Amino acid sequence: MIFDSLKNMDNYKGIPRIYRALEIIRDTDFSRLEDGTYEVDGFGFRYMLQSYTAEKDNDRPEAHREFIDVQYLISGRERMGVGLVSDMTEEVEARPEGDIWFYRGPLDSITLQDDRFAVLFPNDAHAPGIVPPEGPAAVRKCVFKIHV
């Protein structure tokens, strides 16, 4: 997993598709786009814009085997539980057709806000959408799906 600031995005120039996702985050006025899915021409990946209110908790961490997630909050704040798939104690549901597996297991916590982003690889379990201690807030998020 990578948890970093857009201020440090030049550190990822050697990972072209992740760097391209960060460029899109930096250069796009998302207020002009509706929620939905957008293909990134020439790079073979897509991103989704979503709006929601963070939940009280998320006790079902998920992981993907075919895709890397790059998650960035356009507005709002949310906590995300993160851990290693190898540390999960139980697989509770598998949806291979949607490339998503759900688990139970120990998680640490990060907060997505401001210019922070998270890159989640297939070995990273993550439980997004958790309300921060300050209380619930409307969230607008951009999630890139980059094929491994």
Structure description:
A hairpin with a 4-residue loop joins strand 2 and strand 3. The strands form three sheets. Strands 1-10-5-12-3-2 form a six-stranded antiparallel beta sheet, with helices on one face. By secondary structure, the chain is mainly beta. The radius of gyration is 15 Å and the shape is globular. It has one helix and twelve strands; from the N terminus they run βαβββββββββββ.
What does the secondary structure layout of this molecule look like, with pairings?
Layout: E1 2-5, H1 16-27, E2 36-40, E3 45-53, E4 62-63, E5 67-75, E6 78-84, E7 90-95, E8 100-104, E9 108-112, E10 116-120, E11 124-130, E12 138-147
Antiparallel strand pairs: 1-10, 2-3, 3-12, 4-8, 5-10, 5-12, 6-9, 6-11, 7-8
